[in-house]
Amino acid sequence: MKNILLVFGTKNFNNSLNEIKEYLDFSLNFFNADTVFNNKNSTINALLIDSEACNDSKNLNLINSVKNKPIILIEKAGFTQKCNYTDKIISPLILLDFNAKILNFISSRKFIQNSFLKIKDYSIDKNEKRLKKDNLSITVTEREIQLIELLFNEKKPISKNGLLKKIWKYSEDVDTHTVETHIYRLRKKILNNFNDENFIINTKAGYSI
To answer: Once rounded to an integer, what is the mean pLDDT over residues 14-36?
Structure first.
């Protein structure tokens, strides 16, 4: 499935993109101001905004209110408005450069999104292998990240055997105390650094976050 961008621009801008859209490696959806900024569809990768559309104060206010999607601004010479954007491309557009820059932007955003996980009041940076809360952070192992992510994504507690199957795949070097040992060490680190006794909960039904 192709990546999808929502486009908001002047008539000339939209027409120019329509002429090249079949040569692009992503899809373009054209929306008017009343619908584009309220769209929370997870399949939409970004908003593509024509800087000339920002010359209208109503449009500019709408664009500056966007919080749920990254914005790629196509900036034309002489543009001076204070328009919110995540990244920009200078017009006029060169087809190959435009295509490559958009794909690059989308790939970078996906990488960043996949690298961070928000759990309760905590966040995990998978690249740095850090668990963070407020101004505090601790180092976590790859296995601990896997445990936290699995427990968080499951809707019900997971038994010790369930964790062994999903995390360790019942490998030969795993003994019966592997789960307890890893969770004990993780809970101790969180307690010592964040003073949190309830990050991982253990009941008769299993482990959960």
So the answer is: 83
